[in-house]
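re: that chain from earlier
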Amino acid sequence: MSLLSSYRVIYFTFFVGLIGAIYPLPIVLNAFRPDWMVLIIFYWVLALPHRISVVHGFFLGLLLDILLGSTLGMHALLFALLAYFVSIGYQRIRYFTIVQTTLLVGVFILVTKLALYWLASSLQEIVLHKHYFWSIVTSMLIWPWFFLFMRFIRQRFKVS
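^ sequence. v structure.
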């Protein structure tokens, strides 16, 4: 597959992730929304560290900040750091089992959630609800199937 077609598939998954992050859900289900962008960035940096880098994480974070109306740069900083840590450790992470990778995704999302809360609470007075961390559980439950689906997409469209 050509380089342009490979990037089309990758950017389409980024677009779907952004839609998944802002798609309106009922209030009851909103706390269980998986962190789609973290999962997508984690997967693509792990699969193609020579193509998807810190810059992609930064710009996707900026787009998500704009779409969510959050403080500009919060998600950008965290997604860039996520991409950086995955890119420096991708050779080790690739040898992890699916359970180990799932736990690592959970740790990354937990750190992201805590950092987002810390950054937001330093700028304004906010209350931490007990439902804030449910998305970590749903993201961890989704990760094995998401990983297999994304690998199928990558192989089907010959993204390399």
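The mean pLDDT is 94.
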